[in-house]
Design goal:
Chains A, B, C, D: It is found in: Cytoplasm. The structure is a homotetramer. Chain A has helices at about 5-10, 20-35, 105-115, 125-135, 185-195, 215-240; strands at about 45-50, 55, 60, 70-75, 100, 120-125, 145, 170-175, 200-205, 210-215. Chain A is an alpha+beta fold and about 250 residues long.
Chain lengths: ~250, ~250, ~250, ~250
């Protein structure tokens, strides 16, 4: 499909019979994520980078009911993070009225540019939020979720796109503070990614998590492993068990 | 469709191939709400106001198994709240025997007349009920659920139909006392809506919640955001965490 | 369909295109109950009495995978409780090898004969079992679950087949002790039903619950209301809240 | 189907219209197990032994999305446990790139050779993991989960393939320590199976459980009964209730 064609018919970018085409996948995965409680009430979503194109769900809509025709497409440029609101650079904008670009766009871009990720998932999972509440920031304003000795750690990749962790590794995920506007998280997320180059996700206090991977499959399976670890960590903490060390607990 | 047609063939009001027609939507949404645990055992439901017509599910039936032919249609009149039991004013009554108008009708009317809502959802969610149990009434008989510093607050609109709250706002939802007969809640709900003009919902102690919006999508996504907040608030309270202030907790 | 036909072709009893035919309904409802966690691992089920015929799922099979051809049919006789194991009286026995009649048969019969029920549901719901664990027997060996001031109480009928309770009523469900063999519960269940003529269900300690109704819809919606009340009662008790009295709690 | 045919066309081993053919069943059951939270994030799975053939899902893929063409087939030999990585002995290897044999293979083999099992399920259920955390090893490094007086115990078979337990029996499941590499669990699992000849499963600390049966139906229903017992045991322990003895608790 040539660039010329796309400019003449931008909908060619989102029209495909292939269920694994990003425009179709985003809709299917959002329905799945809704059942998991990750994108309830319009929150959360997934962005997929496919070659030079980035596919994005719209903002503020029911994620379990989106249709490929609702998908935005942006060009992927390593150096230019798109500012939300500026529609200048879109390759494809939905014709349906009232659909807005996701405010998460620059956050997804962090994963694409800093980790060469091909997909980034944002969930509002209650397990993620409860976990951040159990990890208050220290005097320097820093907080980190750490857990060890859990089989599911083996499903997480170093930096999200590297090789998988071993059972003997301690998983570390930074927790950043939330901001009133989602795009203002961009700076905090990129700083956390610099400080924690091995982390495959960033937790946002009282908000949720951003998880990425070298493919949509990697992003999804890591989001599942992490959500499992968030959930069991909350249960363990509420039962008085240490998260790190593998000690017997009762 | 002319008024003459409706009087000659009231079923024209509920017969449509459009999945977004209120008679079809109510059935689909009730199936979805059943999966969420909101309308188990015949409780709860949704009413949609479409122009001058109000669509209502029947009372006391399995909400996940209703059919468009079971739907009641009332004329919407700003000043005349229909009394349950009076069938005089119906535009369409199901022909199937034993179906009764919902006792929630005057409560849905509160949302339609006082907030210009187009849809009102009533759930028996356990999260809502547990939350009311954690908020006993004060000496004056008043109780209010308050929560702040949660991303999901941004999904709630001022008064249910206004602009969305900011992350810096504290969400306030009044809790009214339950009454033996559902229609007797009408007065308490309207008083609470007068006292809390910004609230997009009313909780009913040991019973559930009424949530509305300027469209069915708004009502549904706000019901989801609120149910999420009720659930996490119960978890936070049981873990000894304050709901307001955004302080670190452990 | 004449008796002669049934004897010539017993499968006529379970062959129907009507989704509400008992043989079809039992399969559909068992799939639904599986999703609710009521009949996991072959436990639990539903029996429907339709005129002079009683339809029963087989014992010890995956309840979410049964087919109408697996259904047993017994004649309903007010005075003759069928003993499990005696196949003499069956109107229809599945031809598939290895299918056994449910050991719950005489317990379902209690509901059919003592309350004129048309359907009886048996669940292994964890909410029911946890609730029995929170209600130890007194010195006389008796235990009763009591709850008041819950909207969902209004979904329960007096004796399971009478009129519905009011919000002002206290719900009472007897808890009987479990026995190694399910059919040995028959006597304990019938004694509890005599002592509690208004109860619409019997809880079995460390086992589950039997719920019935004047129709399958009544049995199912009451099973849902009760399971909701069992669940919230467990949460309330673990949070230190009283189940009866409607007092404020924190 | 002759051996000659299989060698000429190994895909004949996984191609069937019969939904109960092992290659089809494994895919269907993995989708079901995903909904139960047992195989989230690529973890867990099921292996079925059918005559002289053992069917295995691939490692490290989304278990809810596998297709019969992804299935590995090994010959079943009582004496030769296949080493992971050695592909010499496969009867059928998926042609799709990147699919690896499950590291659980020698663990499934334990069930096939030591108990004559026909199916073995491995789950990462959080109930299993939480239960192991509540049962620290003793000074000799041993730990055992014991529970009695639960109706669901009657769904478990002696040794997984024998006759079912009675309500009066105490269920015992050994808990072995996890190892960094899954195949290194083989030795610990077989030792535990020797020490506990009546146990129908082996729990792995901070990891999950292995359950087997004389058929896939037995393996699945026992996995469900055990997961139910793990879940209620965690709830009981956190509520301060003893798991063994059947005493009243509050």
């Amino acid at each position: 499909m040539s660039v010329t064609n796309i400019h003449e018919d931008p909908d060619a970018l989102i029209r495909s019979d292939d269920p694994e085409h990003p425009a179709n996948l985003i809709c299917e995965l959002c329905r799945d994520f809704y059942k998991l409680g990750w994108v309830t009430g319009t929150g959360g979503g997934i962005s997929i980078r496919h070659g030079d194109h980035v596919y994005l769900a719209p903002s503020g809509v029911q994620k379990e009911r989106i249709h490929p025709s609702h998908i935005f497409v942006l060009p992927f440029q390593q150096t230019a993070v798109p500012k939300p609101g500026s529609k200048r650079d879109f390759l494809r904008i939905p014709s349906q009225k009232g659909l807005k670009e996701s405010a998460c766009t620059p956050l997804f871009w962090n994963a694409f540019t800093m980790r060469d990720a091909r997909a980034c998932i944002h969930t509002h999972s209650q397990h993620a939020v409860m976990l951040t509440l159990l990890h208050p920031a220290d005097a320097q304003g820093n907080a980190t979720f750490r857990i060890s000795h859990q089989e599911m750690i083996k499903g997480i990749r170093i930096g999200g796109t590297g090789k998988t962790l071993s059972y003997l590794d301690t998983l570390e995920i930074p927790i950043i503070e939330n901001t009133p506007d989602e795009e203002d998280l961009t700076e905090g997320m990129s700083r956390a990614m610099e400080r924690y180059p091995d982390a495959g996700a960033v937790l946002v206090r009282r908000h949720g998590v951003y998880v990425w991977g070298g493919s949509w499959e990697q992003a999804k399976t890591q989001a599942e492993c992490l959500d499992y670890l968030f959930e069991i960590a909350v249960k363990m903490r509420l039962a008085g068990m240490p998260l790190v060390g593998g000690d017997a607990a009762a």
